[in-house]
Design a protein that fits this description.
The protein has 179 residues and is α+β, with helices and mostly antiparallel strands. The chain has a five-stranded mixed β-sheet with strand order 2-9-8-4-6, with no helix packed on it. A four-stranded antiparallel β-sheet has the order 1-3-7-5. The chain is built from three helices and nine strands. It starts with a helix and ends with a helix. Helices cover 29% and strands 38% of the residues. It is elongated.
Length: 179
């Protein structure tokens, strides 16, 4: 009986020593506008607030990121704003609100709803690459509005010109009859 209790105790102690401390809640990440709409050619800006949670483990390091969006591979996520706008290290209580990433809608993108995620990686030291926080976002791509062809513009201009000439000739004949 004592041997079994000792074995179980050693097993639990070994698991506790081998499992790294969880640091998934060392930051809070929230997007100001997680659902955005645009048309082909637009660049959508996603602004976020990152808050370092008050804990006794020390500063948290924002080392890297990971991002993806479903749909065509031509939907490009640019994470440069994260790398430029957010600090590498945050202490408990620190908060930063700034542009986190952009999504570029190429000229050939199809209308539809695309979902994605943005994850900040890091941890309690500068070499950690654990997941600190993930946010989901949605991109609604609308159908582009119809743009008239050049021939349509010529036809419209010709019709308006004819109307102007017709109204002008009627006014002139009305003035001629009044005299």
């Amino acid at each position: 009986m004592k041997k079994t209790a000792l074995t179980i105790s050693m097993f639990v102690l070994a698991i506790l020593l081998l499992v790294p401390l969880a640091s998934a809640d060392t930051i809070n990440l929230s997007l100001a506008n997680p659902v955005q709409s645009g048309v082909a050619g637009d660049v959508l800006n996603f602004t976020a607030t990152v808050t370092a949670v008050s804990d006794k483990q020390g500063p948290v390091f924002l080392v890297s990121d990971s991002a993806n969006v479903t749909g065509p591979s031509s939907l490009a996520i640019d994470d440069t704003p994260f790398l430029l706008n957010f600090p590498f290290e945050m202490s408990a209580g620190d908060e930063v609100t700034d542009l986190l990433f952009t999504v570029t809608l190429p000229s050939d993108v199809l209308a539809g709803v695309y979902s994605g995620y943005f994850t900040i990686l890091g941890g309690l030291d500068g070499s950690s690459m654990g997941t600190l926080s993930t946010v989901d976002f949605t991109v609604n791509v609308a159908s582009p509005s119809a743009v008239p062809e050049p021939g349509t513009w010529v036809l419209m201009a010709t019709g308006v010109g004819m109307l102007v000439l017709l109204v002008g000739s009627r006014r002139q004949s009305a003035f001629g009859n009044a005299a």
